[in-house]
Design brief:
By secondary structure, this protein is mainly α. Helix content is about 65%, strand content about 5%. A two-stranded antiparallel ribbon has the order 1-2.
Length: about 200
Amino acid sequence: MKLKFLVIGGCASAALLFTAVPQAPAAVRECIAGSPTAASYSWDFHQEANNLFRDVQTDARQIVDRTAYLQRENGDAGLTWISHSDKLNQVKDEVNDMSAKLCRLAAIRRVLTPWQQQTVDRIAAKIPLMVDAADDAISVGNKDQHTLWMPAYQKYINDLYDDATALNQSVGEAVQYATVSRHYHELRNDLGLKASS
């Protein structure tokens, strides 16, 4: 089963068409120029991006936790494909969620600050890698549910873990920068200082 990428309204988003249960119908998420969030209606796209960065970081952190569990438990002969597929389905849902957020970020990218644009680009570079690794892990597990200890399966889990860790770190730095920057501007206003030129 291969993943398909849809390009609609200038936004590339992964329509994740994989599932860890072969009989289950695949859900398709289309990206149509990005769905606005609450901050969109006030035209505060910078704050909207910061909120989306925080949400992407949360998803990435959850993927790190789930894949770390799979890495730890991979040597356990009693661990079944069902428990692996449950975790991978959760990872798939989180990657789907990040893809939707990336779609919105791509839609507003042109009005963001340069550092926010760089963060969007880092997210856009990692999500397809995570989509591929999750798809490959699910495919291997679906083909042979008794070989979860095989190096190929372990590689996909390790790739998911590494990509989610890198994404968590880089987006976390952007979230931290946004928070510090907001506090800085609030403090300047509280002190009655003029905006620096």
